Amino acid sequence: ALRELGKVDASVEALQRAAKHNDQAAANEVWRDLGAAYLAQHKPESAAEVLHKYVARREYDPEGFLLLGQAL
């Protein structure tokens, strides 16, 4: 929600806290959302790192692969 409101930095901070608290928060979706937030910050390397983790765990989610492709 923060990313959609244009508050990308706040979004990244919240998602990083969630990931640190629980590596599998919301069935790993924290990694997909963090990757999307990194893309919004123009940090494709950081996005690719977390999105690789996401697609390894959720290989059936096309959105994760789309975001990973954008990061790469």
Written overview of the protein:
The chain is mainly α and 72 residues long. Helix content is 69%, strand content 0%. It contains four helices and no strands. Helix 2 runs antiparallel to helix 3, helix 2 packs parallel to helix 4 and helix 3 runs antiparallel to helix 4. The longest helix has 14 residues. The N and C termini lie far apart (24 Å). The relative contact order is 0.16. The model has no long low-confidence stretch (mean pLDDT 88).
Into which percent range does the helicity of residues fall?
A: 55-70%
Question: In oligomeric terms, what are we looking at?
Answer: single chain
What's the main sheet like? none
Helices, by number, come to 4
List the defining traits of the structure above.
globular; 72 residues; mainly alpha
How does the SSE layout of this entry go?
Elements: H1 8-21, H2 29-40, H3 44-57, H4 62-71
Helix pairs in contact: 1-2, 2-3, 2-4, 3-4
Can I get a quick summary?
The chain has 72 residues and is an all-alpha fold.
